[in-house]
């Protein structure tokens, strides 16, 4: 009788242990299933969002290519942000090419500051975003230039396009908007050409770091002032001394 009781107790404990292990395994399976479902849903949502954005970009360039009317600089800026948000060189190289053509076309417009893409550089609300965007665009231009072969006809056309982008946006003397007399200058005390060129070049070439007076660009480029940096602005030179 005593032996039967011990056997029954051992069997009961073993059954309880097995049931506990099965519950743990089931919980792990449920947790793994939830994780897999979350990753799949996330992938599907991202894929759907990317398809919708690319479709919107294609529609934009399709309408823009018809030549019915010039798009405003703000419209080009917004569509460029969407393209750069998901940009992949292999998938979006044609879209990027169309974007560069659209930007250069806007820069060639006559007597229409709202169309000039560079006009956003003179907007206090969009200056930093515009500089970040044009830096990204020029960086991709440089990356694509490294992959092109000038002996191929199609590549030679793209090389011309991307080089034109680099020249256009690193030489502010070609910007028509800086020759407009009644332009609103977001940096009082300076000429528009000087202020835009100085701030843009300081941001484009971070080795020439902005000084303490250039606080507007410390928000977009957290560069540490170089001890031998010579500021182009009219601030006190004592601000540039070594700490």
Model description:
The structure is a single chain. The protein has 243 residues and is mainly alpha-helical. The chain folds into two domains: 31-205, no CATH class; 208-243, no CATH class. 62% of the residues lie in helices and 0% in strands. It has helices spanning 2-65, 73-85, 89-107, 127-145, 153-170, 192-204, 215-218.
Outline:
This protein has 243 residues and is mainly alpha-helical.
Run of helices and strands: HHHHHHH
Major sheet description = none
- Beta-strand portion reads under 5%
Number of domains: 2
**How many H/I helical runs?**
7
What do the pLDDT scores average to?
Answer: 76
Q: Helicity range of the residues?
A: 55-70%
Distance between the termini: 91 Å
Catalytic activity: S-ubiquitinyl-[E2 ubiquitin-conjugating enzyme]-L-cysteine + [acceptor protein]-L-lysine = [E2 ubiquitin-conjugating enzyme]-L-cysteine + N(6)-ubiquitinyl-[acceptor protein]-L-lysine
Pfam family, one: IQ
Protein name: HECT-type E3 ubiquitin transferase
GO biological process, one term: ubiquitin-dependent protein catabolic process
